[in-house]
Amino acid sequence: MRKMFASLAGMLLFIASLGQSSDLPSDRKATKETINLYRNLKRLAGKGIMFGHQDDLAYGVGWKYVPGKSDVREVTSDYPAVYGFELGRLELGHTVNLDSVPFDKMKEYIRAVYDRGGVVTLSWHLNNPLTGKTAWDPAAGTVTSILPGGSKNELYKAWLDKVAGFMISLKGKGGEYVPVIFRPFHELNGNWFWWGKDHCSPEELKQLWHFTVSYLRDTKNIHQLLYAYNTDRFSSEEEYLLKYPGDEWTDITGFDVYQRKGGIDGNAAFIKDVDNMLAMLEKIAGEKNKIPALTEFGYAQVPDSSWWTNVLFKALERHKISYALAWRSAGAKSSGEVEYYLPFKGQVSEKDFIKFYNEPKTLFQKDITKEQLYK
Ligand code: BMA
């Protein structure tokens, strides 16, 4: 009997390990570190929510490019767990991105993040390849123009060559490629980008996604990427999945959400909306075996002194998602707008952000370095 139990247990362990080893990212040639990151993100999603911040190391309110500085660190004495950076204008061969971050500095930040066990995600507000204007130029026919057979397909491939070049320049100390969560064509159910809602059909968007992934993965041999599909706010699973490119083409499923001051959102409405969307997202991710994440969020200038614990945390509390990434704290912009989504020293929500940081469910750099996400 005992023997039978032992062999049964052995068999179960074997089956479990098979399950584990077959749980791979969409890129079947993903590097070891990328596979490890994918599995660890899944594991950690059951433990807590990693906190992320766009351009965290590059600048904050009132400062730029100060080595080691970070608004998150100024307030909590810890760095975020996830760091977002942006590739817009890399495609044009520029040396600085559309938010004036030099790509050389960005590469240094990314390597530093990887060295301390943090997670890197890259967005891409690429210009409109048909008109040469910005990502916010929704000219008709742009998506079809860059698909195979379209007049701008060669140009788009040249742009992807630049993205590939950037990725392969990201190496760890052992020469291994740094894994990156790549998040192209974000907020695709919104109408503001050329790849957005009314500017291409579901079929066209899917073709664009497939073309982009195949080109990077199979033509350029980039195998350090996890692909994140993400919408803006959505009201149903059908809406969320309308342009979903398929399970073989994505690893992470997310959405972006902002609370607007004086908008339709009181705090209660915002909590309810985000909570609902997260519930739908978790269901979809569960069914599709993907990693759910809040790929961007924010409340501009965080005017509510208890927003972190009273609003955001309440929306997140009951959910098992991998990470939540706050958008960039640009400070004063040339337009005159002052843009930030995180507190800094003296900001009204500073103390509350520390409380949020101290919640066991929120994970920052110190929590995740010990989790060795790449091993
Ligand atoms: C927007 C704003 C812009 C920025 C863009 C791309 O939401 O922050 O200032 O250029 O993202 O990062």
Q: What are the main properties of this structure?
A:
8-stranded parallel β-barrel, alpha/beta, binds beta-D-mannopyranose, two-stranded antiparallel ribbon, 375 residues
Any overview of this molecule?
- This protein is of the alpha/beta class.
- Helices cover 38% and strands 15% of the residues.
- It has 12 helices and 13 strands.
- It has helices at residues 2-22, 32-45, 71-76, 103-115, 142-146, 153-168, 202-219, 237-241, 267-288, 307-316, 350-358, 365-369, and strands at 49-54, 59-60, 63-64, 82-86, 119-123, 180-183, 225-231, 252-259, 291-299, 323-326, 331-332, 338-339, 362-363.
- The strands form 3 sheets. It has an 8-stranded parallel beta barrel with strand order 1-4-5-6-7-8-9-10.
- α9 runs parallel beside α10 and α10 (307-316) packs parallel to α11 (350-358).
- The longest helix has 22 residues, at 267-288.
- The mean pLDDT is 95.
- Residues 86, 98-99, 125, 328, 330, 339 line the site of beta-D-mannopyranose.
- The site of beta-D-mannopyranose has 7 residues, from loops.
